[in-house]
Specification:
This protein is an alpha/beta fold. It folds into three domains: 22-61, no CATH class; 77-98 and 339-370 and 387-397 and 416-436, Aspartate Aminotransferase, domain 1, CATH 3.90.1150.10; 106-338, 3-Layer(aba) Sandwich (Aspartate Aminotransferase, domain 2). It has 15 helices and 13 strands. Helix 6 links the parallel strand 4 and strand 5. The longest helix has 19 residues, at 341-359. It starts with 52 loop residues before the first helix and ends with a helix. The protein binds pyridoxal-5'-phosphate (PLP). Pyridoxal-5'-phosphate binds next to helix 5.
C-alpha cells in the first residue's frame, strides 16, 4: 500500500569524481587498487572468475605497474580532432568519427529536435511499441543512400549482425567467413549454431577451397567486411560476387567502415568498385562510425527484411533506438549526400598520415583506408608506445589480443576529415620522437 507521509531525505550517492584521484588511468586508477599488490592469481576452475582470467590480470597488472594501462581513458570533452583527458589536451587519432561530424551544430540540433518531438526513449522493442514514424523515415533514407530495396535498423551494428545471422541460419547451414571478420560476426555464428569455416584473409583461392571442401549444408553464406576494422584494407568485392555466383552461395558484406568512407559519394564498397548494390544478398553496418550516432542496419530484399522483423531476436527483444539517435542518423545522411568534399578530405588526410608514417619507417600493414594500423613486435612495445604518444599529446588506441591474433599488436589509427594537416604533422612529429 502506498502511504502518504512526509518525504524522507533520499540517500545521497557518494561523489565519484575520478579526476580527484592522485593516480593516472595509466597507473590503474580505474581499478581502485585492484592491481596494487602483485598477486599469485590462484584461480581454480570452480571459481566464478576462473583460470582464464589469469592472462588478463597478469597483463593488465603489469601495464598498471609500469604506468602504461592503455584503455578506457575517460574523455572530458566531446570527440573531435582534439579532446581533453586527465586535464591534458590530446590529439585524437583513434576515433571512428570519419567525417568529423560529432559536434557539428546541425547534428546536435537534430538530436535536440528528436528529443523535443519524441522524448528520450523509445518505450519498447521495434516489433511491439518501440517503432516511431521516425524509425521508418530513417530506414527509407538509408535505403535510398545505400541504393538497396529495404533497410531494417537495430540498436547497434553488433546486434544487426546477430539479428541477420542468427535469424536466418542454423546448424543445417554453413558460413564461410574471412579470417578477419569482425567479432560480432563470429559471435553471431556461435549463437546461430551454424557450421563455420574461415578462409584466409582476402584470399579468393582459399575461399574457393573452403567452399568446395566443407560439410554438407542446406545453404552457404560467404561473409566479409567491406573495410576490415583492424587492418584498414578492402575486400575484393568483384571476386566475392563472382565466387558467390559460381558456387551458388549467398554473400553478406559488413559495410560498417565503408559507409560514408568509400566511393565518390560515400555509399560504400559497392560504389567504390562500381558493383550494383543488389548483387550482394545481405548488407549490414553500424551508425557509430561515419554516421555519428548509435545503431546498426541490415539492407536487402523486402522478403528478407519482413522475415527478420518477425524472426530476429534484437528486433523483438531489445529496445528500439532512441529518437535522438535516429534524428542524428537522418541528418548525417543528409550531410553525406550534400557534402562529398568530406570524403576527399578524409582520404587526403589518410594518405598524408600513412605516407608520413611509412617514411619514418613504420609498418602500416595493408592499410588503404583511413584506418591505419601501426604494427609492433609485441604487446608490451605497443602499450609503451601508446603511453609515450599520450605523454606527447597524441591519443592512439592499442589493439591487443584477442582483438587481433597474438603477436600482431598494433596501434590502430583512424584519420578523420576534421583533422588538419597541422594536426597530422603534430602526430608525425610525435611518432618521429617515439622512433628516436
Ligand atoms: C566491422 C564491424 N562490424 C560491426 C561493428 C559493431 O558496430 P557497433 O559499434 O555499432 O555495435 C563494428 C564495430 O566496431 C565493426 O568494426
Amino acid at each position: 500500500m502506498i502511504q502518504n507521509s512526509e518525504p524522507t531525505a533520499l540517500p545521497v550517492a557518494p561523489a565519484t569524481d575520478i579526476s580527484e584521484s592522485q593516480k593516472s588511468v595509466g597507473q590503474g586508477q580505474l581499478f581502485n587498487g585492484f592491481f596494487e599488490h602483485p598477486q599469485d592469481w590462484n584461480l581454480r576452475k570452480d571459481q566464478l572468475i576462473d583460470g582464464r582470467a589469469r592472462r588478463v590480470f597478469d597483463l593488465m597488472g603489469r601495464a598498471c605497474e609500469a604506468g602504461v594501462y592503455p584503455f578506457q581513458l575517460p574523455l572530458e570533452t566531446r570527440q573531435g580532432p582534439w579532446v581533453q583527458a586527465e586535464g591534458n589536451k590530446l590529439l585524437m587519432l583513434s576515433s571512428y568519427d570519419y567525417l568529423g561530424l560529432i559536434g557539428d551544430p546541425r547534428i546536435d540540433a537534430a538530436a535536440i529536435e528528436g528529443i523535443r518531438k519524441y522524448g528520450t526513449g523509445s518505450g519498447g522493442a521495434r516489433l511491439l511499441t518501440g517503432t516511431l514514424d521516425l524509425h521508418k523515415m530513417m530506414e527509407r533514407d538509408l535505403a535510398a543512400f545505400k541504393g538497396a530495396p529495404e533497410v531494417l535498423t537495430f540498436s547497434s551494428g553488433y546486434l544487426a549482425n546477430l539479428a541477420v545471422i542468427a535469424g536466418l541460419f542454423s546448424a543445417q547451414d554453413r558460413v564461410v567467413m574471412d579470417a578477419l571478420c569482425h567479432r560480432s560476426v563470429v559471435d553471431a555464428c556461435k549463437m546461430a549454431g551454424v557450421q563455420v569455416q574461415r578462409f584466409k584473409h582476402n584470399d579468393m583461392d582459399s575461399l574457393r577451397h573452403e567452399i568446395a571442401n566443407g560439410p554438407a549444408a542446406n545453404r552457404t553464406l560467404i561473409i566479409s567486411d567491406g573495410v576490415f576494422s583492424m587492418d584498414g584494407d578492402i575486400c575484393p568485392l568483384a571476386d566475392l560476387v563472382q565466387i558467390k555466383k559460381d558456387t551458388n552461395t549467398y554473400l553478406m558484406i559488413d559495410d560498417s567502415h565503408a559507409l560514408g568512407v568509400l566511393g565518390k559519394g560515400g555509399h560504400g564498397v559497392d560504389e567504390l568498385f562500381g558493383i550494383p548494390t543488389n548483387e550482394i544478398d545481405i548488407w549490414t553496418g553500424s551508425f557509430a562510425k561515419a554516421v555519428p550516432s548509435n545503431g546498426g542496419w541490415v539492407a536487402g530484399s523486402q522478403q528478407l527484411l519482413i522475415f527478420l522483423q518477425h524472426a530476429a531476436s534484437p528486433f523483438i527483444f531489445s529496445a528500439a533506438l532512441s529518437p535522438s539517435s535516429v534524428s542524428v542518423v537522418r541528418e548525417a545522411l543528409r550531410i553525406m549526400w550534400t557534402e562529398p568534399e568530406r570524403y576527399v578530405r578524409l582520404h587526403d588526410n589518410a594518405n598524408f598520415l600513412r605516407g608520413g608514417l611509412q617514411e619514418l619507417g613504420y609498418d602500416t600493414g595493408l592499410s588503404e583506408t583511413p584506418i591505419i594500423p601501426v604494427n609492433f613486435e609485441s604487446e608490451e612495445h605497443c602499450a609503451f608506445a601508446a603511453a609515450m604518444l599520450r605523454s606527447m599529446g597524441v591519443g592512439a588506441t592499442p589493439i591487443l589480443f584477442p582483438a587481433v591474433p597474438l603477436g600482431s599488436a598494433r596501434l590502430r589509427l583512424c584519420v578523420t576529415a576534421a583533422h588538419t594537416k597541422d594536426d597530422l604533422q603534430f602526430a608525425l612529429d610525435a611518432f618521429k620522437k617515439l622512433r628516436e
